[in-house]
Structures are given as structure tokens and as C-alpha cells.
Amino acid sequence: MCGIIGAVLVQGLVAPLIRQSLKRLEYRGYDSSGIATVNAGRIYIKKDKGKIDDIHRRLNFDALPGVIGIGHTRWATHGPPSRQNAHPHIDCSNRIAVVHNGIIENYQELRESLVDRGHILLSETDTEVLPHLIEESLQTTKELVQAVAKILPQIEGSYAIAVLDTSGTALVCARKESPLLLGLGTTGFYCASDVPAFLPMTRKTLVLEDGEIACLTAQGAVLYRLLSTGGLAQLPPRQPTTVQWTLDMAEKGGYPHFMLKEIHEQPRALLDTLRIRKEKLQKFAEEINKHQTVCAVAAGTSYHATLASRYMFSQIAGRFMHSVVASESPEIIDTSLGNDAVIIAVSQSGETIDTLHALKGLKRQGCTILAITNTVDSSITRLADDVLYTQAGPEIGVAATKTFVTQLACLASLSIHLGEITGKQKHREASELFLKLNKIPDLLQSIIRNRESLVKETAQQYVAKPSFFFLGRGISRATAMEGALKIKELAYVHAEGYPAGESKHGPIALVEEGFPVVFVAPNDRTRRFILGNIMEMKSRLAEIITICSSEDERLIELSDRVVAMPPTLSNIFSPIGYVVPLQFLAYYAAIQRGFSPDQPRNLAKAVTVL
Ligand code: AGP
């Protein structure tokens, strides 16, 4: 997730305006940034690794001349943060500059054929293929907008791009699956990943739809539909909407809190993570398979992701995986594991000191370290032998939400690849599993759309309760533990996340009339046992809140409150969907109890003390 901005001013210098816009997009990524402008037939670029203000202090972005410019704030996906990998990227002749947000899946093939045709590419990014392709296209096409249109049908993946060239009359932007909005002002026209970028200049905005291209000039914006042939069909002018948001609201996408925004971003984050290149996952899976012992190490929510993935590894790949809380690792596995062990280290921040400390010990013992993280260039990436990046984009709310579901998606994909290697899955079966996994972003969208208000009511109903149980069996145990962690950390309510079968060995003693017990109960092979656990709680007059399939009539009948889930959600991947109502529950419980969900007390986004 990066932030892009493009601007065409009627008069004045565009660079200071773009710099300030980038500041307002910095929440989308901040490992490097850059600005390109065009003036008197020449492109000017300043870019570097680091935060916008620091780069500006060194390079002075504001000195770039011209009324047309583009800017980018990067959240690295292909290639580490560096000056070379920072956007904008240019073609061989310095005639075209491009900024891009998204992932070009077939960039490797495009890059190889460009190099064969004599192009010199300087970065490791997927984006850099774009200016070079446009360079070729401009040899046979006069207008920039036509040249851009011509190359887009060959781009697989997602993009929001802004392009300028030395002709210096127009800026072209296009979109497929990555956000892009137009801002229509009186003194300038803009395109950006998000409204805050141009909010101080204009409140009039238009959403550019997938497959649309816009050409911005000092006279306004002309919209086109991209044809599959690479041609353009001009669209009739569209009425802009007027945004009423304050800047603070706009930064949160109109949501009152980052956490709520991030819950709503989960389908997108998942989709991006499911685009991780097959070869990369395959390589990871092969490395895992080489080792006799597989052990996951993580903390907090990331630990819960590893707990869930144990079931995936076992049921899909036939491989047993240990899962150890990072802070406990030095006491239990440091001395017992060696070079026949592979460690799967999971951390959204890549900076959790418990996890880093554990990994240092395990590395000394000779273990191979494979990291899964959301943060490029974080400390964990330097300790690891190889790294997989989840594609959640920066997560600002302290509570992990979208990073959790992307970790699960990553581990699920890995388990399928591993299953093919171990022979537990035939190729056809593995393809079916991938199909099921790829359906989850849409299912998540429908859960978010259809269940939020119901969970909000549920939170209202139980908000005064001092204590909760969250119970699940099998893979749902991890979901239940995550639900309990969320409500504890956000609403400051006591909660226990427990394996449902184990609840009768002690915790049940706490249950009395009206005690709320949340059951996470997909229709998998544990369901017949969970039915018994519900009966045990019911007969002690507990209030039963169940998250189960909308087709599970028996559980629905037994429960006081039900959050029904789509029956098409595959059981082995169920935590990815079933966790969503629990995130909403914790969020709304916090709000109703008067606490800020974005900054819970005593917690930090990255915990860097042992
Ligand atoms: C989750 O909501 C918490 N903020 C916390 O448990 C977190 O998951 C934990 O500190 C681990 O962080 P990491 O993924 O960055 O390593």
C-alpha cells in the first residue's frame, strides 16, 4: 500500500503542494518518497529513502519547477527501501515519469522482455516496467493518454498510476483494483490514492473506476474507458461529489477510528496477500519440508495466527508444527532445537523484542529462520534466512486486525504448497483449496457489510458484563483466543480464550446465570463436540453467543445470540472470516465503554521491551 498524488495547476509551483499532500498520505507508507515535475520540456526528480520531512530537509522538494507534478510515498513490496527503488520511475530517455500503487504480477516477464529489447532498468521494483513500456508506446502514438492506454492491457495485477511526460501539457492516471480519486478544484486538478491528499485544495471529488483512465490538464479532467484492445472510449462528464469530511476524518477514510477502517480494509489486504508470487511460497514450503522439526514463534495476535496454522499444516500438509510464545522460547526450545529445525517467525511489526530475542537464540543453535512480516526492512528481516511479506499495508490501530487475516492467508497458502510437496494434496486437490482461499476476500466483504450492525447490538447488550469466555475447538480455539485478546486489550473486560473441550476442567466453575460465553463454531468435525460444550454451559444458565454457519439450525436454536456466517466459507480457513465479528465486538465494546480503540492503555504497536 503506497500513496500517490498527481497535480496540474493553472499557475504557481506544484512541488510544495505535492510535498504537503504526500505528508497527508504518509499513513499509507513512509519508507521512501519522491516527486517529479515537468518544466520547459524537461523532467525534474527528487527522491530518496526515508520520511518525507527528512528527505525534504536534505533535498528541498519545493525547489522543483513547474505546474505539473506527481508524488509517491512508498510502502515497499518489490525491493527494499532505497533511493533507486523509490518512485517516481523514469524511462531510458528521461521523457516519462511514473508513480504507482499496487502490484504488477507479471513484471518479471515484462522486465525480461524489455531488457532483451535493450532497455536499462535501474531498480528492483515492479513499477519500473511501466515508464519503459510507455516509452516504446510513445514511439508510435502521439498523445500520452493513448500511449498509456496501449500498454495497460498487458499489465496483470493491480495498479493506480499517475504519469507525466516532457510534453508538459497533461497528466494521465489510470486505475485497476487500487484506489484512485480525482479532485476537481478551481485552481488545479488532482488525482490521489485518498481524499486527504487534495482536501485542502478541493472538496469536489470523483472516483476513478476500474478500467478507467483520466487525462488532467489545466482545463479540467477528461475520462475514458480503457478498451481491451488498448484503445480508449471517451466517457461523458460525471458529476463530482462534495466531501464533507474534516481532514482528520479523511485520513481515517471517513471512519471514526483507524481500527474500524482497518477492519473494513481486510478484504483488500487479503486479496493483495493472496497475490504473493507462487514461486516465493513454493521456495518457502520447500525449505520447511527439508527440516525434521517445524516450529512457529510469535507473540500476541501473531501467535494466534500460528496456532491456527498448526491445524492447517497438520490437516492440509500432514506436517506437525510446534507453536511457541516468543517470550517462552528461550526457556523451552533454544536448547533443544538445532539445524534440523526450521522456525517460522511471525510478526506484523518485525520489531517485537520477544520474537527477535527468541530468534537470536534459535539462530545460534543453527535453526533456519523463515520470517513472515508486514514491515519491509524491519529487524526480523535481517535475522531471517528468508522473508515473506504480508500485504496488509501499514496498520495504525494498536490492535492487530488486517495483519492477522493476512498472516493467516499467508500461512494457509504455505500449507497448501507444503501439502503438494509432502504428497498429502494431489495437484487437483491443492487447486481446489486455492480456489476456496481465493473466494474468502469476497466472503469477508459480505461478512463486514452484513454483520457489523448485529455485532454492534450484541456489544450493547453485553457491555456491562464484567467477564467473558471465548471457546472454540480445533482451529477455532485460535479464533476464540484472538477474540478474548481483542476484547481485553480494547474494552478492558476480563475474558478467557480457551479450548472448548478444556473448559469443563476448571473454568466452568466461574459460570453462573447470565455469564456470557462466545462459541466459535464452524460446521467442521469438532461441531458435534462443541454442541456438548454448549449444553454444559447452557445448563449452568450461561448466555450463549454463537458464531456459526447460517445453515446450522441446531446451534442457532440453542443460542441466545447468533452471528451467522456464510456456509461457503471453508472450515479449514474459517478463522479468516470468523475473527471479523470478534474484532467488531471488541471495537464496539470499547466504544460503548468510552475507551479509544486506536490507543489502548499500557500498549504499544510494537512492543520493544523484554
Ligand atoms: C494485538 O492486537 C496486539 N497489539 C499484540 O498482541 C501484537 O499482536 C503483539 O505485540 C505482536 O506484535 P507483532 O506481530 O508486531 O510481533
What does this structure look like?
The protein is α/β, with parallel strands linked by helices. The chain has 19 helices and 25 strands. Strand 12 (212-217) and strand 13 form a beta hairpin. The mean pLDDT is 94. The structure holds 2-deoxy-2-amino glucitol-6-phosphate (AGP). 2-deoxy-2-amino glucitol-6-phosphate (AGP) is lined by residues 299-302, 347-349, 352, 355, 398-400, 489, 606-607. The site of 2-deoxy-2-amino glucitol-6-phosphate has 15 residues, from helix 10.
Offer a concise description of the structure.
The protein is α/β, with parallel strands linked by helices. The protein contains 19 helices and 25 strands. The protein is globular and about 80 Å long.
